[in-house]
Design goal:
alpha/beta; single chain; 26% helix; globular; nine-stranded mixed β-sheet; Rossmann fold; 381 residues; 12 helices
Length: 381
């Protein structure tokens, strides 16, 4: 099975398009309120998302950011290749291991004007994957994690055309997959609608030669969660492996949106999962086999992050890598907290709203306690 699709756009016009997700970020004095906007066209206008600049909620006294350890790329202690390591050994994280590793890679020169430099993005990706696996040969890691015949879905987030998953990061991941032996037609860059993908700068390809890129084209497996029953899109069922490529953003209904909430774009009724601060919905959704068993890597696109209005993202010049979605989301939350603190804004709602992190740890999806996360930071020049 490949990701090619023989049906034309005209032939599919009679099918219902997936509802576009829109967030709902509004803040009142001392409290959060979120609303769900109506449907929009497949090529939507930029959403008007207010910034939470008026928020004055302080950080709770129990908040502890994850401490980082400086690391150097490709240290001499790293083994040349992971040939002796199995895929399950590479993917293992807390609670199967004592801690979960997250790597943050920074490069101050990654932006070439208004666009990222593709060569530097690849350099950052290689350094991050090497540090994540203590391996000097990043390409060997890709070959261990993925088979040439895999159908790999890259789940990006394009709800906001101003602050989406940066295309340069997704295409860098796709390039390394091809170099590891996958044919481009078996790589799908995916989000809910083709219109949102195109508005974010992705090249739509629905069956032609090369990397595939399109929105949802049908519904698949059902997931019965506490708050609602939803269906995954058929692309999630059809793939054999997932690489989650989110971008860190604040969120009025969940505190933060990083890797785990990115999968709200993988199901047909995300609006039904926004009650009670998206808890336990986010954690329950990510515990489904469709996500939990297929995810093989998370690459957080943090060249830009959105601590406030999604249409006005801010430079972070970083990539976040992990096999643990909970740990990566925790580190992504800390990045957003720092951005707000640097501007003198209260950031307490990022902590109070992100209660799904604690629920996810309770479900053993990964670690959110600072003492259970091994955070490594690399600065490239």
């Amino acid at each position: 099975m490949t990701f090619r699709h023989s049906k034309s756009l005209t032939a599919r016009r009679g099918q219902a398009r997936p509802l576009s997700r829109r967030t709902f970020v509004g803040l009142s004095t001392g409290a959060l309120a979120a609303w769900l906007a109506g449907c929009r066209a497949s090529t939507p206008p930029s959403p008007a998302l207010p910034s939470p600049s008026s928020t004055v909620t302080p950080l709770p006294p129990t908040y502890t950011p994850v401490p980082a350890t400086s690391a150097i790329p490709n240290p001499q202690s790293a083994v040349p290749s992971p040939q002796s390591a199995s895929r399950p050994a590479l993917l293992a994280h807390w609670p199967a291991t004592a801690t979960s590793r997250v790597v943050v890679v920074r490069h101050a020169g990654v932006w070439a004007g208004s666009a990222p430099d593709p060569g530097i993005v690849l350099q950052m990706l290689d350094a991050g994957l090497s540090a994540l696996t203590d391996t000097s040969d990043a390409l060997a890691v890709w070959r261990t994690l993925f088979d040439p015949g895999d159908q790999v879905l890259l789940k990006v987030n394009c709800i906001s055309s101003g602050g989406p998953t940066q295309p340069a990061v997704a295409y860098a991941v796709a390039q390394r997959l091809q170099e590891a032996g996958l044919v481009p037609e078996n790589i799908l860059i995916f989000d809910r609608t083709s219109g949102e993908l195109a508005a974010a700068g992705y090249a739509i390809n629905e069956g032609g030669p090369g990397i595939q890129c399109h929105g949802a084209q049908g519904k698949g497996t059902e997931a019965a969660l506490t708050q609602a029953t939803v269906r995954f899109y058929q692309e999630l069922d059809g793939c054999t492996a997932i690489i989650n490529v989110p971008t860190p953003k604040q969120h009025g209904s969940a505190g933060v949106s990083v890797a785990m909430k990115n999968h709200y774009g993988s199901v047909d009724r995300p609006g039904a999962l926004h009650g009670n601060w998206c808890d336990p919905a986010i954690a329950e959704l990510n515990s489904q086999p469709t996500i939990r068993d297929k995810t093989r890597l998370i690459v957080g696109a943090a060249l830009n992050v959105s601590p406030g209005n999604w249409e006005r993202p801010e430079r972070e010049n970083a990539l976040l890598l992990s096999f643990d979605p909970v740990a990566l989301d925790t580190v992504g939350r800390d990045v957003l907290v720092r951005h707000l603190q640097d501007k003198g804004r209260g950031a307490g709602y990022l902590i109070e709203g992100a209660r799904h992190l604690t629920t996810a740890q309770a479900l053993e999806l990964g670690a959110t306690d600072a003492g259970l996360i091994d955070l490594r930071e690399i600065v490239l020049e």
